[in-house]
From TrEMBL, chains A, B:
A matching Pfam family: Hydrolase_like
Subcellular location: Cytoplasm; Nucleus
Gene: Lhpp
Record family assignment: Belongs to the HAD-like hydrolase superfamily.
Protein species of origin: Oceanodroma tethys
Reaction(s) this enzyme catalyzes, per UniProt: diphosphate + H2O = 2 phosphate + H(+)
Residues in coiled coil: none
Keyword Transmembrane carried by entry: no
Annotated Gene Ontology cellular component terms: cytosol; nucleus
Full protein name: Phospholysine phosphohistidine inorganic pyrophosphate phosphatase
Length: 262, 262
């Protein structure tokens, strides 16, 4: 599975670092692994569903942990959503995390004709959900754009409902299907590949999420590895629908194998 | 459609009265219509999805508007849920309206092994939703009981998401299917019929909700009328799946026609 590779797509949380506490801790060997990928001449793009911060802040956090990473190397849902909004002249009502709002600074938000929902965390109040719902139900043909479809995630103070759960609530109430931006959407992986200029057949996705990373990338024609770090659980290896091209213990091991084949 | 009737099931909100403001206003002719049903000797049961108040409070409000109604005549989701909880030795974590909590006074709630969700309104906070989610996801086989599956409803200050939307959020996050108590669940209509001692072939449901009242009752073998009051909208008459046995302008008109046939 490691042959004829020209580019790598890396998930971030759970592959580069474990989140929690005051930001997170690098996973052993990952800082060095990113450096080795870059030194090898392989193309590299980071592909994240992170929507609790702007890419600027997110990259700064990773640089602070020692990672060689820049904003241009990060494919994230909010900028992808902004491209869609511009292309289709959509003016969003935003139900997102406060820290994400600057990503939409250049977007016209007056008199909204769609709703964009992200992992709004504490902004998922009864009042805010009703407000987003009213904007949607008031449209002749409701347009709901969701920054991911995650079910839940873990923080230091426990499990939290992710954006996908709130997306489902609005979908049901308005009898509409959300357009998902972010993994596992095909268009999202394709835009990351386009950034690298590498066709799917020559790219490998490395992630910890069996459905959103591995399944999504494979549906685009890429190979995909699951790391046994982050949200990986042993029962993932019996997943009824998705089978990675290989399992690796962590990013460092994946990079070892791939670089040997070059 | 009005022949060989022995019992009537009446929806309450939108059929007897319109909610809003400080409680609601009787729909013209409805107080008298209830009186005429009782005088005719027909069996009568009220069948509501109301979960923002105990039956006691709900009945008191209706009596205050002039309706001849008693607690025993009301089939509502919370008491139905209590029967299920007792039968199956389930101890609920409650995510419901504060005013509904007394309905569960006699139910053991220690060390919960299921979640009961109702229209919790202001109690649908981010923290409370995460808490209900954690209780569910922590179970080997999550049990979610939902007091209705409504999408939304109208109050004087605007449209509000109903319990069904939050039910869908938890269903998706926990990959579980909720057990719905209340209309349109078959068992709920059947328990209302049992209260009257009338078989479905001899009963008519009268409601304003094309799916939950009309569709639900018809699936139980009952006839069902839609009134053109309450949440009725002209587009209901083109519903792709549900066709009432008849439309009537309001409850009074339905009772006129039914009593003529006796």
């Amino acid at each position: 599975w490691a042959r004829a590779v020209r580019g790598l797509l890396l998930d971030v949380s759970g592959v580069l670092y474990d989140s929690g506490g005051d930001g997170g801790v690098p996973i052993a060997g990952s800082v060095e692994a990113v450096r080795r990928i870059k030194a090898s001449g392989l193309k590299l793009q980071f592909c994240t569903n992170e929507t609790q911060a702007t890419r600027e802040k997110f990259v700064k956090k990773l640089q602070g942990m020692g990672f060689d990473i820049s904003v241009a190397e990060v494919t994230a849902p909010a900028p992808a959503a902004c491209r869609i909004l511009k292309e289709r002249s959509l003016r969003p009502h935003l139900l997102v995390h406060n820290a994400l709002i600057p990503e939409f600074a250049e977007i016209d938000k007056a008199n909204p004709n769609c709703v964009v929902i992200g992992d709004a965390a504490e902004n998922f109040t009864y009042a805010n959900l009703n407000e987003a719902f009213r904007v949607l139900i008031g449209m002749e043909k409701p347009v709901l754009i969701s920054l991911g479809r995650g079910r839940y995630y873990k923080e230091t103070d426990g499990l939290k409902l992710d954006v996908g759960a709130y997306m489902k609530a609005l979908e049901y109430a308005c009898d509409v299907q959300a357009e998902v931006v972010g993994k596992p959407a095909k268009m999202f992986f394709e835009s990351a590949l386009a950034e690298m200029g590498v066709p799917p057949q020559q790219a490998i996705m490395i992630g910890d999420d069996i459905v959103n990373d591995v399944g999504g990338a494979q549906r685009c024609g890429m190979r995909a590895l699951q790391v046994r770090t982050g949200k990986y659980r042993p029962c993932d290896e019996n997943h009824p629908h998705v089978k990675p091209d290989a399992y690796v213990n962590n990013l460092a091991e994946a990079v070892d194998i791939i670089l040997q084949q070059l």
